[in-house]
Amino acid sequence: MSFASIIDFVVLAAIWGASFLFMRLAVVEFGVVGTAAMRVAIATVFLAPLMLAKGHGAVFRRAWWKVCLVGVLNSALPFMLFAFALLSITTGLSAILNATVPLFGALVAWWWLKDRPTGSRVLGLVIGFGGVAALAWDKASFKPDAVSGIAPAWAVLACLLATVCYAFAASATKRYLTGLPPLVTATGSQLGATLLLALPALWLRPEQMPGAQAWLALAVLGVLCTGVAYILYFRLIEQAGPARALAVTFAIPVFAILYGALFLGERVTPWMLVWGAVVLLGTALSTGLLKIPALRPQT
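and the corresponding structure tokens:
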């Protein structure tokens, strides 16, 4: 990996790690649907001119319905689910659970695309799910949280459902959108999510006008954590390959936990750190980024 790619990798992990912080700040005032809707709308406004400036308008018109549908799974649903989860669990735990996306992606690709994993990848699936189960067990109470009124167990389940959405979106992209310019896929997915969430967000709009902090959080979330992040991510895929780009998922929790502790005063427990590391190990194995060499008898 070149020095420029390493810089992109670190910056992207830092940006996506911050997305959980900004979602947390926005969802309190905008609500779950409003936060997700404004995020994708701002990202669409940011990305669409870039796509048109690149001359991809004709390509988008030919495949608009496919990329818009992928946006439902890739943006609309998971953004709402994570916003809901952040009402009752920490940004660090949400980011650790988000790191299971490649793990669920391996399972979906196995089932849908018949991409059978190797022995070490199967071991990674088992380890990864064990770590997720331990993290979920720590938040297994369905007793409503005193502040949000939402049980932490529902928040954990929402995060896991969001990662499943991302996994299906990845396989759908591979199967139906191969060959499209990445900027077309990125812009179309945000547009599709915006169209889906526009009316629900209008119906469920906040009764009081959100404050400046919530608006600023949403602006950063849409432009930086979605629009700019997509550009960096696809550039990283082009320069370093998809496997190395995928590894950014493992670095995101580091930044998310750091931001949560510094700016939100969130407590980081040893349980979360230990089992979070287990999840990352399992995910690295399940995606093939980390391999266990075959044991050979010595002669």
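(Above: one complete record from the training split.) The first helix runs from residue 3 to 53.
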